């Protein structure tokens, strides 16, 4: 069974660490053993010290940088270390300037694809200051885009510190939020307190659950007589950011142009797409990466089973799979 990963997102001071502590309390009450990955921009581990004083969990820390940029290379190793300890779930608290979809992409790396899956993204919003961000950070357009993206990709939105704002302002904030995300439920909260049961639905303790000795194998799908690994079916993600892994035959009977055409057809929903691909009549393996409407190809030394991963918002998995298979006809 793959390990579910919960991502906590939100700007600095919104209440993410408070939420993390509440999540760990809830996990303990359910008999679950969590792993935690904390990322801080500074060199001093303030939040990590708070965590260690209040919770009994396996913790990995990435300090003095953001996992979306300077610490991106260390993120993969930290998640591997946590997953090797076989926790019942992993909670990832991002820095206030991190984009959650970057983490979703890392989880699809070959070393983690069979170990973790993204369950949900929870974004915490500072109700007292959120309406001021556009003017405060007007000179930093990238930061403003990141803060909006934290809202757009969230599966649950916590409008925190509602005890510090009047009801009229709360309604205005909720209306603003809906411009960027009209699907995720909004929870007005104080001290990041809300009903967490939906986050933990169907997550069982590996030590207490009665587990069958017959572990389901990863299903196989044949395309033109070649068996390739497809997405595992034993886990379910509840996140709007969906990760769909699809098969690629070792002797792929298609072309780069057909792959790119398929990607462009899903451009409005795709955040990322990547894979290690091999074309018929070519001994090379290529790393394909798609983002922002552009596809980049480069030769790779990857020697595992070829595959491709789509990462997007509210993807129609059945229709995407059907269209993907057509490029091999």
From TrEMBL:
Organism: Paenibacillus hemerocallicola
Domain CobW C-terminal: 243-328
Annotated protein name in UniProt: GTP-binding protein
UniProt-listed CDD domains: CobW-like (cd03112)
GO cellular component, one term: cytoplasm
InterPro entries: CobW-likC_sf, CobW-like_C, CobW/HypB/UreG_nucleotide-bd, P-loop_NTPase, Zinc-reg_GTPase_activator
Catalytic activity entry: GTP + H2O = GDP + phosphate + H(+)
Domain of life the protein comes from: Bacteria
Gene3D superfamilies in alphabetical order: CobW-like, C-terminal domain (3.30.1220.10), P-loop containing nucleotide triphosphate hydrolases (3.40.50.300)
Family: Belongs to the SIMIBI class G3E GTPase family. ZNG1 subfamily.
Statement: the UniProt record of this protein carries the keyword Nucleotide-binding: yes
Molecular function terms from GO: hydrolase activity; nucleotide binding
Keywords: Chaperone, Hydrolase, Nucleotide-binding
